[in-house]
TrEMBL record, chain A:
InterPro entries: AAA+_ATPase, ABC_transporter-like_ATP-bd, ABC_transporter-like_CS, P-loop_NTPase. This is ATP-binding cassette domain-containing protein. Transmembrane segments: none annotated. It comes from Hufsiella ginkgonis. Residues 15-252 form the ABC transporter domain. PANTHER family: PROTEIN TRIGALACTOSYLDIACYLGLYCEROL 3, CHLOROPLASTIC. GO terms for molecular function: ATP binding; ATP hydrolysis activity. Keywords: ATP-binding, Nucleotide-binding, Transport.
UniProtKB/TrEMBL annotation, chain B:
The keyword Transmembrane helix applies. This is ABC transporter permease. Keywords: Membrane, Transmembrane, Transmembrane helix. One of its GO terms (cellular component) is ATP-binding cassette (ABC) transporter complex. It comes from the Bacteria. InterPro entries: Permease_MalE. It holds the Pfam family MlaE. The keyword Membrane applies. The chain crosses the membrane at residues 59-78, 98-117, 156-180, 192-223, 244-267. GO terms for molecular function: phospholipid transporter activity.
Amino acid sequence: MEKKASPINRENAVISIRDLKKSFGSLHVLRGVDLNLYQGENLVVLGRSGTGKSVLIKIISGLLHPDSGEVNVLGLSVGSLSDRELLQLRLKVGFSFQNSALYDSMTVRENLEFPLVRNYRNLTRKEIDLAVEDVLDGVGLSQAINQMPSELSGGQRKRIGIARTLILRPEIMLYDEPTAGLDPITCIDINNLINEVQEKYNTSAIIITHDLTCAKMTGDRIMMLLDGRFERQGTFEQVFDTDDERVKTFYNYNFTD
Amino acid sequence: MAQKSDTPADSSRKYVVGRKLDALFLDLYKINRFLGRFFKELVLPPYEFKEIVKQCYEVGYKSLPLISMTGFITGLVFTKQSRPSLAEFGATSWLPNLIAIAIIRALAPLVTALIAAGKVGSNIGAELGSMNVTEQIDAMEVSATNPFKFLVVTRVLATTIMIPVLAMYTGFVGMLGSFININQMEQTSLPTFFVGAFSSITFLDIFSSVFKATVFGFTIGAVSCYKGYYSSKGTEGVGKAANAAVVTSMFLIFIEEILVVQVVAALR
Ligand SMILES: Nc1ncnc2c1ncn2[C@@H]1O[C@H](COP(=O)(O)OP(=O)(O)O)[C@@H](O)[C@H]1O
Ligand SMILES: [Mg+2]
């Protein structure tokens, strides 16, 4: 189930983070994070729950402010953008939420239209429909177009959530625990979808997970968040070839249930 | 884009004056920013006409049955209870005047606002609270779609527009209830009733009543949206937001009622 090699441009870092720190009160979540995401790459961020994985990508998309450090996304320093510039940047950065975050008062079609219609106000009905059908087809859920989110399964909700970000044609995708709470077969489907997105839309992605199968299947490179820093990185084998107890515990917990 | 979850207290949770007082100042700071953002987004295009109309409909539709019933019964019972005292002076012909003053000046806006605070306020608090908890608001934020404008501005506008309309309706239904009782007991005709009723009502009464209802409407919308939009994460956040929306709205409505009454009395 090893991932096949993707065309990655290691000259061009689409996200680069230097010495990022973030605390909540006395809780020091991120203690100096350094990270480069290269163009075309799927980067997996591993870590136990509560290590600050979600906080990291929320900082990247400007939902949270860092205490200190540099966060550059597509050449722009996220901290110093005007409101307008931040909106422009957000169009290029897709965010797939852990619990999908579908708008539960809207149908699937309305969910998908929402970001499109509200960012591009002069699209015709036909253009909107085409875009919706295209992304829906891309995630293999054309038949669900008129359903409400509450009628969908967990895996389907994930797909719609991913489709809703793809409709804006992002250059970067941030996946927050894409396989959490799904059965093993659905997990594999979602992992395949993540790789398809990378190929079809030429995205670079950060995939946050604590699921090692997901990491193995989708990651071109893996970084492991330990005590607020990236202490290990490389291929799957390189990351886990260590005597570090924390890493071994993480590995064993994943493969012995 | 203003940050939602990120406030100064997040990064340094050291209490400067004391826990409670600090929380109060933080709240004041957040309310100030909330109102500032509201008025900014209110005037800046694009305007969400379709969503505003939808929310107006929601506000009206949700509270209409309860308001109709309460208004009608208030008018009817109030008339019935006032009659004996007036009868002592042989002044039951003054009933329409008395009732009109009570209903138009005080009861209609207040009753409408209190019911809407319970019905609409809790609804907005819970709705936005659960959108916040399930990260739907964050999802709107990261797709550059300005959730504040779409969710908050539309709802605050809807309550500000609809509560005065509903208050006028409550006044009308209340007068109807009163008329039915008076017609039954004193055989007063509808024209006589209305001539009596409106002989004592001035423009200032109607204006201050509509003004009050507008203030109440804004309060319900702003408080409920604030409580929902900034609800704490976690499932209990939703219930807390709905509850706080109702309690805080009602509290402020009473305070505003007292203030407006003082001002109008001074103008009279
Ligand atoms: N907005 C916030 N306010 C306070 N604490 C937070 C906030 N967001 C996250 N945290 C805390 O930061 C830590 C890391 O959270 P998170 O990034 O969600 O972990 P995970 O790695 O499981 O995604 C947790 O202990 C969480 O309680
Ligand atoms: Mg998380």
